[in-house]
Amino acid sequence: MKIKSANFVMSNSNVTKAPKDRIPEYAFIGRSNVGKSSLINMLMERKDLAKTSGKPGKTQLINHFVINESWFLVDLPGYGYAKISKKKRTIFQHFIENYFKEREQLVCTFVLIDSRHDPQKIDIEFMQFLGETQIPFCIVFTKADKLGSSKINNQIASYKKKLLNYWETLPQSFLTSSSTGLGRKEFLDFIDKINEDVAGDFK
User: Fold this and answer.
1) How far lies 82's CA from each of 32, 35, 91, 131, in Å?
2) Per-residue pLDDT for 62 more than 80?
3) 203 part of a folded domain
């Protein structure tokens, strides 16, 4: 897939106010500081489409971007950031949960995982929520450039093995690096294929 256009549409905290366009939608979510904004910018070949920050918890709304005038990319608030107040975390959880339960255009969610870390309880619980809600998702391992090739392969294999303690089969996964562009083609080809498969559902 060639990215011809990528434009910000709106931000909100109420799924009922999200765009009404009947086109496929892909959500990006993960723990704060997982490199979500950098990954989105790498995929779209834009430096500042999604706002990056050295301060975790920057994204606090549902952000819609329309890509190639044919599908939505949705940048969701990160979860698990301890320095965000308890009240704000509750609000995030509420409108994020509503988004996943009510957004009919959503066809796939990309759960971002820092490839350097072992499985975290909050990630496992979130993936279980998606499974229970019957929302298709993929795992996206980020920051692959931070580890050597042999070490990263061993780390991912170990991560997947541990996930099998919770899942009978694992969803598709991608290994990415915002710095090197690793995984970009595979990622966009995957979205392209899904768009073709669901085209009839959006007519």
Assistant:
1) 9, 17, 14, 25
2) yes
3) no
